[in-house]
Each structure stands twice: as C-alpha cells, then as structure tokens.
Amino acid sequence: MTEIIDVIGLALILAGALLCLTAAIGLLRFHDVPARLHAATKPQVLGLILIAIAIALMSRSWQVAAFLVPVILIQLATAPLSAHMVGRQAYRNGTLDERSLMVDELAESKETPPAAGG
C-alpha cells in the first residue's frame, strides 16, 4: 500500500511541476497582460495544490497536511486578487490592448476620474 501512495505522490509532483513549468513558459511567451495573468495564476496555483497534496500523501503525517492547508488557502486567496490588481493597473496605464476586449466595463471610469466625485 505504501508503494502505491508513493507512486501517486510522484505522479502528483510530476503533474504539479509540469503545470508550474507551463506557467513560467506562458509568462515568457505571451505578449499581452491578460494572457500573462492567466498563465501566472491558473496553472501555477493548480500546480502548487498538486504538489502540496503529494507532500501530504508521501509524508503520511496529519501535522504536515494541516500545515499545508493554510498554504493552499492563502495561495487561492492571493493569486486572483493580485492578478485583478495587475490587470486593472494595466488597463489604467493604457498598456492593455483595448481592441481585444469583448466587454469594457471600465470605459465610463476613464471619462470621470474617481476623485472627481461624479
């Protein structure tokens, strides 16, 4: 039974490492901000979760699993928030290709500055 758990753990580590590698390649290869944010958040977070599950399985310790739960939760909370903030700043700076947007929900915020009160 321990050999099966070890093989599952190794497969999860390999899958997680490949996802993290694809995230890194996506950051280098994609040209626009939304595509880079997608590459930085989605596969990287899933890769971290897979690696954390593998560590918890292979350590066979409830203390290690309990330690990894907050790590995963913090990653799930901070990755989308940071991607949102970077994407919004790219929009405000004008470094975002507005022609590629299907819906521009922030178009009216460009007309009236937030500090203008209107």
Uncertain ranges: none
Helical residues, percent: over 70%
Beta content comes to under 5%
The number of helices is 4
Radius of gyration, in Å, reads: 19 Å
Question: Could you describe the largest sheet, including whether it forms a barrel?
Answer: none
| Mean pLDDT metric | 85
Order of helices and strands: HHHH
Q: Into how many domains do the coordinates divide?
A: 1
How many β strands by DSSP? 0
Report the structural category.
mainly alpha
Topology of helices and strands:
Elements: H1 2-29, H2 33-59, H3 62-93, H4 107-111
Helix pairs in contact: 1-2, 2-3
Describe the 3D structure:
The structure is a single chain. The chain has 118 residues and is mainly α. It has one domain (2-94). It is built from 4 helices and no strands. It has helices at 2-29, 33-59, 62-93, 107-111. It starts with a helix and ends in a 7-residue tail after the last helix. The mean pLDDT is 85. Belongs to the CPA3 antiporters (TC 2.A.63) subunit G family. Keywords: Membrane, Transmembrane, Transmembrane helix.
Summary tags:
transmembrane, 4 helices, sodium:proton antiporter activity, Multicomponent Na+:H+ antiporter subunit G, 0% strand, 118 residues, PhaG_MnhG_YufB
Summarize this entry quickly.
Belongs to the CPA3 antiporters (TC 2.A.63) subunit G family. It comes from Microbacterium invictum. With 118 residues, this protein is mainly α.
